[in-house]
Amino acid sequence: MAKALVVGGSVAGLASALALAGSGRQVVVLERSAPPPRGAMADLHSRWQRPTVPQAQHSHTLTSLGVRTLRTRAPEVLERLLAAGAPLFDLTRALPQGATDRAREVGDDILVALGCRRTTLELVLYRVVEALPRVEIRHGTTVRGLRLSADRQSVRGVVTTDGAHLSADVVVDATGRRAAARGWLTDAGVPVAGDLTSPGGLRGFTRFYRLRSSSLPGPLNRGHAAGDIFGHYAGVLHPGDAGTFAIALGTLPGDTELDRLRHSGSFTAVARATPGLTAWLDDAVSAPISAVHAIGSPANALRATAVRPPVAGLFPVGDAACVTNPLYGRGMSLALAQAFGLADTLAAHPAGQRTEAAAEFAEVLLQPWYEHASSADRERIGRWSAVVHGRPLPPAYAGCPDTSIRAAAAQDGAVWRGLMRVLMGLSTPDEVFGDEKGCLRADAAARPGATGPAATRPPAEGRNPPRPLSGRLGRSRARGAHPPQPPGGRGGPGRPDRAGRPADPALRPEPDRRHRALRRAPRRCRPRPSRPTPRFRRTDRGDSR
After folding, report:
1. Within 151-291, where are the H helices?
2. 315 or 448, which is more confident?
3. How confident is the model at residue 354 (pLDDT cuts 50, 70, 90)?
4. Eight-state DSSP code of residue 449
5. Whole-structure pTM over 0.90, yes or no?
6. How much is the pLDDT for 402?
7. Angle CA(399)–CA(405)–CA(411) in degrees, nearest 5?
8. How far apart are CA 163 and CA 73, in angstroms?
9. Are 184 and 532 within 8 A, CB to CB?
10. pLDDT of residue 397
11. Which residue of 170, 385, 484, 533 is 20 to 30 Å from 252, comparing CA positions?
12. Is the confidence at residue 496, as pLDDT, over 90?
């Protein structure tokens, strides 16, 4: 029987083991950490310490892509998640009231999302996988390097740190963001092309809560979440399993005004001042069940080992293949889709064609989301930096304007469905808004004179206007986020300042609630002095190990 070694036993590794075992392979999962504790699911979240997976303590969601993958390929996993109290949200319930095409359409049934903590998903996956007769999970095992053929063209297995030589014709790198395959290949003297990388530009803070009742205290304006991405920070709430929810606040590194978010008082003050989250944080509605967890955002990366493999038989999956900004919540769903797609690809091709076919599949699946995250982050970093540090706005990008798409989605049901398919990972931005027809429809619905909620909603004001998350984000900066220069040119009396605010203080809008709340919050430490923020640029160099 063909054998596969999966290095890494987190979400991507467990999904790969489940998929490969389902295609008839004998699978050994090699995981360096200890196994999860036994007991009732509700008791394990605080007991299972994950020093090798720091992102496990942060907000996650399973998009429509992930739910569709589980429905079709691992229904037992989905059933167990639902039994553990993970809610399944019908996203069409968030379709704007005044939008056209409100009748149920073909394809609406897959516009769903699952509210689930990452730990819950991983525990359910673990228990399903460990029960499979074709899978063995070895804990406390660290892989030191690869075993290669004499010509160093194909994989023959791995070598562990204790000197064990394990043989297999398929090695799956599921080591997460550290992407150990590059180090293994370098140590073996195999040259590897440079990864595509671009900065993520995000610092995240997350806290978990438990509802005191079974009813949701407020609407989910995003269908499966509440909140939004605003002018210089993000504040999003995701309902989870077993009556829990998580709030994630994202800021720019170097935003000293938000350095204190790591402290519970400041975090609560800012979260309560964030539109859409206030009702959830009433003391009679919910109670915190965790401390505030902080994390830096990794760089967006598309690994050369995944799309330009230098040896046959080595297959990176999950974050070891592609990392996108966690702000978009696509990581777990892409890992699930890639794991089952990899298993299908290996089963459908002869041995000599598998590596090339798997690389092509990975590129088609992952590159659009890498490019989307890179351009979106580049735009967002520029916009947030303009507000926080007073820097010039970034240049405009060609393509469908973000504001046109969101405004059109508020009154055109077809545009709304297209936008949701992009946000949920079902369609790439270019598939929905990449042609002239899609852009024209969005522009027509959003242009002045159109009727519906988008036309009647007052413009956002202040230093922190709501900033939507769109399909073709990053292809063009949102128009109208800052007031235009008044008549009279640069010498005019009402010339805006560098942040886009009117020079006359009497014309400036009221400062946003978030900053007032932060100033009222307990000050447990002095903010760090401001440091220059490095200039961000896209690179094409390989990551270090």
Report:
1. 181-187, 264-272
2. 315
3. very high
4. T
5. no
6. 65
7. 150
8. 36
9. no
10. 57
11. 484
12. no
DSSP string, 268-322: HHHHHTSTTTGGGG-TTTEEE-S--EEEEPPPEEE-HHHHS-SSBTEEE-GGGTE
Distance CA 114, CA 93 (A): 14
Read off the tokens for 133: 């007769």
The DSSP H or E segment spanning 64 is: helix 64-73
| Predicted confidence (pLDDT) per residue in 433-481, tens digit | 876 566 656 666 655 555 443 333 322 333 343 333 233 223 322 333 3
Are residues 157 and 166 in contact, defined by beta-carbon separation less than 8 angstroms?
yes
The widest CA-to-CA distance across the chain, in whole angstroms, is 79
Question: Which CA distances in Å does 497 have to 62, 127, 485, 490?
Answer: 41, 58, 10, 10
Please report how the helices 513-520 and 264-272 are oriented relative to each other, as an axis angle in degrees rounded to 10.
150
SS3 378: helix
What SS3 class is residue 532? coil
pLDDT at position 448, please?
Answer: 54
**Out of 370-384, 398-412, 479-493, which region has the weakest mean confidence (pLDDT)?**
479-493
Give the model confidence (pLDDT) of 197-244 as tens digits.
998 878 889 999 999 998 999 999 999 999 998 888 999 999 999 999
Yes or no: say if 507 and 494 are a contact pair by the CB < 8 Å rule. Answer: yes
Asked if residue 231 lies in contact with residue 464, where contact means CB atoms within 8 angstroms, the answer is yes
Give the containing element (helix H, strand E) for 27: strand 26-31
Burial of 142 (0-12, 13-18, 19+ CB in 10 A): middle
How remote is the C-alpha of 431 from its chain's centroid? 20
Average pLDDT over residues 319-334: 92
Q: How far apart are CA 393 and CA 496, in angstroms?
A: 13
Name the strand (E) or helix (H) holding 331: helix 331-348
Phi and psi angles of residue 492, each rounded to the nearest 5 degrees, phi first: -65, 150
Q: Is 139 helix (H, G, I), strand (E, B) or coil?
A: strand
φ/ψ (deg, to 5) at 278: -55, -50
**Residue 543 pLDDT greater than 80, yes or no:** no
In this structure, the number of other CB atoms found within 10 A of the CB of residue 191 comes to 7
Return the structure tokens found at 441.
Answer: 């429809």
Mean per-residue pLDDT over the chain, rounded: 81
At 232, phi and psi to the nearest 5?
-150, 15
Task: Please give the helix or strand (H or E) that residue 61 lies within, else none.
Answer: none
